[in-house]
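User: Can you recover a sequence for this backbone? Please restate the input before giving your answer.

Assistant: Of course. Working from this structure:
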């Protein structure tokens, strides 16, 4: 379940939603505040390999919206490329998130934050799919143009 907080800034008050989650063993806890910038499915080979699944469900957040609330000492990072800094729990190996510094976003894996209602809107890197999904959502060959991809849509 998500929680609602009232945040006071000067004389203004605003309500924001907070989503909590963590790693497989519970040693690392994290929180995402507000709303993700985007949610969807990634079909890229490296994402599939990292997640050990035929597709990776992502939620993209601004870095300031994501924080480790406990167990930071157990967070390890693996970087295969400059595009992705994959973070996981060193105790259990549970995946947490991937920082994408070149696009200024953090992918908090949808399964990591079970309190978030996952509502995907796009498939990225669909040219690499091994699991065709006919769901009527846009399928992009790689990434949206604003994130450095071609932005080319391909058929289901």
């Amino acid at each position: 379940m998500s929680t609602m907080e009232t945040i006071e800034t000067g004389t203004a008050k605003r309500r924001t939603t907070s989503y909590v989650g963590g790693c497989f063993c519970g040693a690392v806890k994290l929180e995402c505040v507000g709303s993700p910038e985007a949610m969807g499915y990634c079909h890229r080979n490296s994402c599939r390999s990292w997640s050990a699944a035929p597709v990776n469900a992502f939620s993209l957040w601004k870095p300031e919206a994501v924080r480790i609330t406990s167990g930071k000492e157990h967070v390890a990072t693996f970087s295969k490329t400059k595009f992705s800094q994959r973070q996981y729990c060193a105790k259990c190996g549970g995946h947490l998130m991937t920082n994408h510094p070149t696009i200024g976003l953090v992918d908090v894996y949808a399964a990591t934050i079970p309190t978030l209602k996952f509502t995907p809107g796009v498939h990225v890197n669909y040219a690499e799919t091994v699991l065709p999904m006919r769901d009527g959502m846009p399928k992009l060959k790689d990434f949206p143009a604003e994130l450095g991809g071609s932005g080319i849509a391909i058929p289901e």
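That completes the design. The chain is about 5% helix and 40% strand.
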